[in-house]
Design goal:
The complex is a heterodimer of chains A (about 35) and B (about 525). The radius of gyration of chain A is 15 Å and the shape is rod-shaped. Chain A has 1 helix and no strands. Chain A is an all-alpha fold and about 35 residues long. The termini of chain A are far apart. The longest helix of chain A has 27 residues, at about 5-30. With about 525 residues, chain B is an all-alpha fold. In chain B, helix 1 (about 10-20) packs across helix 10. The chains are: A mainly alpha (about 35), B mainly alpha (about 525). The interface of A and B includes residues 13, 24 and 26 of A.
Amino acid sequence: MTPAGWMFMLASWAAILGLFVFALVRTLRSRGNP
Amino acid sequence: MARERWGSKLGVILAVAGSAIGLGNFLRFPGQAAQNGGGAFLIPYFVALFLLGLPMIWIEWTVGRFGGGFGHSTAPGMFHTLWNKNRFIKYFGVIGIFGPAVIFIYYIYVESWILGYAWFAVTGQLNACIEGRSFEQATLAMKDFLRGYQGAAPNEHFSGIGPAYLFFVLTFATNLLILYGGVQRGIEAVCKYGLPVLFVLGIVLMVRVFTIATPDPRKPDWNVVNGLGFLWNPDWSALGSGQVWLAAAGQIFFTLSVGFGVILTYASYLTPKDDVALSGLTAAAANEAAEVIIGGSIVIPAAFAFFGAAATAEIARAGTFDLGFVTMPLVLQRMAFSELLGLAWFLLLFVAGVTSSISLAQPAIAFLEDEFGLSKKEATLVFGLNTFTLCHGVIFFMGNGVMDELDFWGVNLCLVLFATVEIFLFAWVFGMDRAWTELHAGSDITIPPFYRWIIKYVTPAVLLTIFISWLVQGGFEKIFMMKDVPEKDFYYILGTRLALVAMFANLALLVRFAWKRRRSGEAAA
């Protein structure tokens, strides 16, 4: 894998995981959950 | 009759994420990325996510919740509510029931293959078919196995379509049973357990693929890291191709389940005070994690490690079904505990399939409940009887292009057309000021204000560009001149199209009848 390949993979994973964790934590902390 | 509601916020998020996470996350995405510029594909992919995917997600959640407040669970009623001065707009809404039902008819058959293959993996039939053969011979054997299973031609593996039919009936019954349970006790309950199971299975398979390392020391280049490189190394020249940008937009549409009408129905079971902005974002993010992180880390890297670059390039081009039903059994057979890993792979796909297919069925069921006063059980039964009958066209005439034809109308045409009408209604007819207020009612987050501009101008412009490009690049000829239809399949395709026209006309008549019924009810009151 080239350095650019690593960069694309890690940046994409970080962006998606960041979004997912942010959204999930905010959801779990908000009202309306059991 | 009291309107059904979701049991919890997490429940609805998991149900929408379950609808979005389907076979495409694990089979379509890696193939698309590998063929369209590798890592560079992620640039148009993320652009499409932020300019097209997220706006459409927020619009569908908002329109769904808004329509649900007026007792509508499907697009005809919702579109009429958004533009009540227009008598015809409800007929455009028919696409939001028709499209998902058309996709359901063939999707559930593919889903049943997965159940069948899970059985064949556990009983060792898949391994027996591959053992002792070279990659080329084993690939041909697996393709034969799939063709035999589909009933295309009797062969050494299958003498007829009997096993496929049995697994189809089991899968259909499973779906119907879930739908019979209703929104909270059926759909929500299954997604609440199914989605965590899906993520655990996906992570287990991903970790197993990452630990393959270099399976054949004589071929040190054939390893997982280079396999990831096959998918992620950017080919910058791809960014200059309009096809790549269209492929990325298409993948975003397909993966997020927007433009189908199913999110409208799911969101209609929210209360007016429930949040839609954060819930929509969470469901979309869960789908992206399943697609880019898990989906991109299983089939292609594993295939590269075992079969090398040239074979993987061929595999990526071979399409969705071959990746799932031909390549993965070949890969898994080379690992220890291959039966268990095979079961995990097909179980992952089956859970992804079921949580998607139940969402495709729900708009039609909800329409019968809302507009004709049928009970949940009656509506499920009516839907089940109709679609079970129609599925036989796919099962017995798949070799004549019936499934591809349904896919063309259900996905390629309905999706973009429906989304274009939807955004026009939301941003231009309903009005951006009201739309923005409605989107933020009960919201747990504030959407950045520049999305007002994106929703009003950018997303509709992108959708129109996609639709026109699609028409110009062969869509028009395919619709009106039946381009690329082989002579032997001509009458089968014509028959399928006539059946689809009849199905759409029936739904439109039902809408007309329902509105008349509603008017006379109001007059009597």
